[in-house]
Amino acid sequence: MVLRYKEPRALSLLPSGSRVRRAGISPISKKLIGWTEDAALKLELIWFGSDSSGATIDRRVPYFVYKHILVEKTQADGTVVPLMVKNAGAAYGVYWYLADKNDFSLRALEKTAVKNMMNHVAAYSTANGDKKTVIGVDVNNEGHVTAIRKGTGGGTVYQNPATWSALSRFTSSTSFQVRTMWEHQVNLANAVKESNYPVWTRSNSNSGAKQPNVPYNEHVRTDGGGTSVDFCGLDLIVELYLRERTE
Fold first, then answer.
1. Where does residue 214 rank: exposed (0-12), middle (13-18), buried (19+ CB within 10 A)?
2. Do residues 201 and 229 touch, judged by C-beta distance below 8 A?
3. What three-state secondary structure class fits 139?
4. Which of 29-38, 148-157, 210-219 has the lowest mean pLDDT?
5. Per-position DSSP letters for 50-117, written without gaps between them
6. Helix H or strand E segment including 43
7. Residue 162 has pLDDT above 80, yes or no
C-alpha cells in the first residue's frame, strides 16, 4: 500500500520549535477573557487541533497539522482511496481529513502549542488582576481514531501501518483504538497540567463514537496509574436534536 501525504512529514520540514513556542494567546482570546470578566463569568477553553468533531477540519486546525495529513492511499490492487471528505457548504469547514493520532511528532507539536497557549493565559491573568477567569479546558471534541464521522459523509477507514504496528500487542483493534484515543487526549491534558496555568481538563465524545472513552478513562484512573483527563462524557447534541424533531 502506498501512502501519500499532503506535505512531507520529515520533522526537519515542520515549523521549528521556536516558531511554535512564539505563538501566543490571540487578540480574540484576550477579548473573550476580558468580556467574560466584564460579565462576572468564568470561561472554559476548547482545543480544536488535529481532531475536532471526528476529523481534521480545514477551518479549525493550526497550520503545522497539515504537515501530518494523509490525502490518499493506494490499495494493493491499485485502487486509490481518498482519505478526505468534501462537504460543500459545511459550516465547520469544507475539507475534512484525518490526522494520525499515533504520530508522535504531531503529538509533541500539539502539546507544545497547548502548553504555550496556557502559559500565555497565565501571563495575561497575572497582568490583569489574577482573576482566574479561565477555569478549564476541553482538550478534545468528539474525537475519532479510524474514520471521519459518517454523519458528515465520511466513514473512510484509516490504518497507517507505520503507526499501527503495535496493534498485535492488543486483544483487538477496538482496544487499540481506545488506547490511542486516550493517549491523544492525555497528551493534550498533560500540556495543560504542566503549564503555568493548570486547570481541570475534560473531553467529550460523540455518543455514536466507537471508542468507549468514558469507561476507559475511569478504568485507568482507578486501576491503571491515573489520568490527567479529569472527566469526560458524551455529547448528546445529536440525540437531543433528533428527539426535538420527533416530538
1. middle
2. yes
3. strand
4. 148-157
5. S-BTTBEETTTS-GGGGGGBEEEEE-TTS-EEE--EE-TT-SS-SEEE-B-TT-HHHHHHHHHHHHHH
6. strand 43-46
7. no
CA distance 48 to 120: 17
196 SS3 class = coil
Amino acid occupying residue 81: V
Q: What is the pLDDT of residues 129-146, one digit of tens each?
A: 999 999 999 999 888 776
CA distance 218 to 32: 32
Q: What are the pLDDT digits (tens) for 31-52? A: 889 999 999 999 999 998 888 8
Backbone angles phi, psi at 158, to 5 degrees: -135, 110
CA distances from 158 to 5, 46, 53, 190 (A): 13, 25, 16, 26
* Distance from C-alpha of 186 to C-alpha of 214, rounded to nearest angstrom: 13
pLDDT at site 98:
77
pLDDT for residue 151 is more than 80 = no
Hey, which residues does 147 pair with through a beta bridge?
Answer: 157
For strand 95-97 and strand 56-57, is the pairing parallel, antiparallel, or unpaired? antiparallel
Grid cell in block for residue 41: 463569568
Q: Which phi and psi angles does 151 have, rounded to 5°? A: -65, -20
Distances from the Cα of 85 to the Cα of 61, 131, 154, 199, angstroms? 16, 43, 6, 35
Distance set, CA 109 to CA 22, 31, 66, 70, 103 (Å): 13, 26, 12, 17, 10
Count of other CB atoms within 10 angstroms of residue 167: 15
First vs last C-alpha separation in the chain: 48
